[in-house]
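Hi team,

Filling in the usual template for the complex we talked about on Friday. All components are listed, including any nucleic acid strands or ligand strings, so the model treats them as one assembly.

SUBMITTER: L.P.
PURPOSE: interface mapping
COMPONENTS: two
RESIDUES: 696
SEQUENCES:
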Amino acid sequence: MKGYDMIELAGRNLRQSKLRNGLTTVGISVGVASLVAMLSLGVGLQQMATRRLTGSGLFDTVFVTSKQDYRGFDRDEDRKTPHPENAPILDEPARGKISHLANVTEVEPEIRVIGEILYGGQTHFGFVTGLPMSARENEAFDTLQGRFFSSDEADEVILLRDFAKELNDQDPKSLIGQEVILRYGERQALAPDNSDRPQLSGGQNNAADSDDSFGFSVVRKTQKVKVVGIIDEEPYGGMRTVSRGRIFLPVGTTERLSMAQTSDARGVLGGGGNKIYMTLTVRVKDPGKVAAVQDTINQMGFRTFSILDATKSLRRFFTVLDLFLGIFGSLALAVATLAIINTLVMAVLERRREIGVMKAIGASDVDVKKLFFTEAGAMGLFGGLLGIGLGFAIGKAINFGTGVYLRNHQLPAESVWVLPPWLIAAAIGFSILVSLLAGLYPASRAARLDPVQTLKYE
Amino acid sequence: MTSSSTGVTKSAIRTNKVCRYYPMGNSVIRAVDGVSLAIERGEFVALLGQSGSGKSTLLNLLAGLDRPTSGSVVVQGRDLATLLSEELAQYRRNVVGMVFQSFHLISSMTITENVELPMRFAEMERAQRAQRVRESLERVGLSHRLEHRPSELSGGEQQRVSLARALANAPSLLLADEPTGNLDSHTGEDILGLIRDLSLSLGMTVVMVTHERALAERFAQRLIFLADGKLVSEEVRA
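RESULT (copied from the run log):
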């Protein structure tokens, strides 16, 4: 029998017992809704946790240092490095190479220098750090007063609230929009020194150089900057070098102003006069890609660090959570499966004569089996669609209730229930699959009916 | 006496010592017991006998609804006993048309849908089906009742619909199990007249089970008498 004929006949048969088939379909929909509600809750919680962690800016980040630097994150590893002096240095070409790696979205140096703000005739000391534009997504900026930097090289500054209070205790917010003067040390390269003083050598770069006369001086400079925002807490949860500042500039601005850092001295000693980075912060497209990027950078000869293990544990936790939520959600669907079996077995009993007639006029066992399968599948499809709608309504109610609860506790509302498109497709597919499995027994029972007996019986 | 010796190549149906036994408790019911017969193409044959004589069982064997315990049932050169279940369904779909005493129409379907059903199983295209349904119902004089349901028709009309359904896939063999059993004598005669006319015009072989000898003598070309599952006699009509 052709597919459309099968569907047409199945639809006609289902319409014959509207109430019974309708109730069975509602039963399936309750099962699907329960499954969808549970799994969507798991997805929502996972997304919320991931959002929080991504917001912290730590879980999608790889910190890169040179193995020449003995002050790495993993001191044990340093001891294992056979010839650290031969390890590649973290310079501009290395930065460029890393930024072109797959899944890398941003490579920025960790710049943290001493600076001063001149305001109201007074000087206020504080650490100045450079923030990349991606820092906007950091949760510290969720409660930003004012706005974020307009560009990566804007002469704009964001202040930590404590520091802003130091500038204006009464009304720190009034600083937003005002210009202040930033005082800092600028790195200025010196002209080559060709005097006859003894030359030192060491490390691969120096050994290759014929001239050790690199150097720079630090010159006091000032720059007018506009206060554009105030944040309450340190970005990146205070976990990064750039977190530990009170005055935040765009990282491009700090580089443009050639702010002198301690790593500059390292560049003079081992970088052949080139700019050397102590640490580069590599931002990866999503936390799942961190391991691959980390491996690639390790293969380039650099030392890397990420909080990958923590994300692994987190993924494991949510996998287990989803599994349990899925099992609980499936219980209702299991009950619905019994309802499908019952409905179809009843249909087989009621339609014995009809099945016998169909066989007598040419239906094969396979036709009869397919017809019952189609009926089961149709109930699964409609139950699944209805279940998605019901599950969606339950989810909206959960989100609404959670929002009210959180607001009552002075917390921002969160979507703890999320229904992704893949779950919609999976739930409908699962509903159809379960219905077809439930239809196995009734369908084979119908197909096995002996037409002679059924026609004689009637 | 049997007709197994007559025209083997011409025969539309040939059975050879066909048996159908049913176990019942510790005993065995010999519903059909070693029947050998041959029916020629286009022939109208009536199977007669008392209740339990095995005529309906023999008809079911010819229809491919049942399988013989032993012996063979050869229709158009194919031994039904050796066919697979799917092949038997195909045989019932394409070669056989069946008419029953209690019509066996599907009450939830309209007349059109009932007649269309065998064509669905034969995977016929919709447009062709619609035309065939019209033709079949016109042939039995019910072209004005297309959208009626069986319950809205008289017994005679229902049997006509049953006949139209049997003709839907243009079978070469029409098997009728007590087609007049639920009809009054006048309507019964009409139905058998119709079957005979169709047999003649379409060249169909007809095997009819009946216990009404008078009707059988009037319409059938040959009468075959069964008793206790055995073929006991034959009578050829002019």
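MY TAKE: Residues 1-9 of chain B have pLDDT under 50 and may be disordered. Chain B touches chain A through 28 residues (CB under 8 Å).

Thanks, L.
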